[in-house]
Design goal:
This is ABC transporter ATP-binding protein. The protein is of the alpha/beta class. Helices cover about 35% and strands about 25% of the residues. A hairpin with a 2-residue loop joins β1 and β2. The site of adenosine-5'-triphosphate (ATP) has 12 residues, from α1.
Amino acid sequence: MSSHESIISIRNVSKAFGKQEVLKDISLDINKGEIFGLLGPSGAGKTTLVKMLIGLEIPNRGENFLFHEKMPSLKLIERVGYMAQSDALYGELTAKENLEFFGSLFGLKGKGLQARIHEVMEIVQLTEHLNKAVHNYSGGMKRRLSLAIALLHEPELLILDEPTVGIDPVLRKSIWDAFYELNAKGTTIIVTTHVMGEAEKCHRLALLRDGGLIAVGTPDELKENTNSSSIEEAFLVYGGVNA
Ligand SMILES: Nc1ncnc2c1ncn2[C@@H]1O[C@H](COP(=O)(O)OP(=O)(O)OP(=O)(O)O)[C@@H](O)[C@H]1O
């Protein structure tokens, strides 16, 4: 699916919070049509990096581009669906009302919006809970609703920060099936994860540790280059730890 047209370009980016350097001289290109995974342990800098991609964090050094435009730039936001790690939902409102609110922010309305609401709720398998107040949703249901919101305006780029945390394996599989379907229609997808099995599902991966990029490649390349039988083992080898 990947076209080798770079839609994200990160050039020697570093970021510090106070004295803590959270991203260290990262350079990376992500191509149109990829399912690209950012894999790393908790605190590695994944969230900081994805926020930077869409202009929510600004680097101290280096620069990053989205659709060839230097970030931060507000005008690109409609082309991106972003699902943050913590759910930004209105608990008092029903799922439908949440979707209507976020849809209206993207200029969706009327029958088109209602049809789209039904489509995205089908994808995340929440249709029967459409009229339930969100404070009655479980953690996994909230994650799925957040995903539905990110999909609502049919963005060409989806950036998903740990999209399947708290979601059971059966539903996780069906959500990944939905990612592949969207990807087949041309959507580029970036996911952060610390789940190795999930990383295997990506076309390409960047391994992050302590704010540094330790390797980039397809899951097979990463395993072959390190003589590893799993991504977990490859990660340890790249990280300088004997597997
Ligand atoms: N706004 C901030 N102010 C200060 N420190 C921050 C801020 N945001 C992140 N950090 C620190 O930066 C480091 C990287 O955090 P980040 O959330 O990017 O990691 P992560 O790989 O996404 O981790 P997780 O998988 O746990 O979400 C952590 O040590 C975190 O405490």
